[in-house]
Amino acid sequence: MPRLIDDLLLLANADASIWSFRADEFEPETLAITTYEAYEEIVKVKKQSLTLNLPEEPLPSTSGDFQRLRQALGCLLDNAVFYTQLGGKISLGAYKTKHSLFFYVSDNGEGIPDEYKEKIFERFYRTDPSRSKKEHYGLGLSVAKEIIRLHRGKIYVRDAKVGGSIFFIELPLTTNRC
Questions:
Q1: pTM higher than 0.85 for the full model?
Q2: Tens digits of per-residue pLDDT, 34-55?
Q3: How far apart are alpha carbons 35 and 100 in whole angstroms?
């Protein structure tokens, strides 16, 4: 219940444009590693594997709200852990292109049908209404979407080649985004 209340307050503050946001410079690898380390024990409980994929060349430092971006990645990892079977595989990674910095979370879980791929980012939306477990209220992806929107980025999902899903967070490689 406390997490639900926190998520609702966060979304209400974002809607009212009064969300506290702190833009600092940080290393993307630090964000990925910190988030990875927070989930190492969680995946062990479900006998899942979690891998971290970072490029050999350092990623450019960027500015943004480190804690909020960590929260967004956490939302993606929460879903990957929840919707991936026992013994499943989950990956967290980062890379850059000419104009963007990407973070991704992939899994070999059940995947998401095409007709739901846009809807899953809506508040309280769940692809399977029969899922009534109290730990998921259908807010995590909408929270992540707001965080990324405030960073002038994009969040989206694609099918993984081996089954499951890949969620992408795309942030522009510019300073003073927030």
A1: no
A2: 999 999 999 999 999 999 999 9
A3: 20
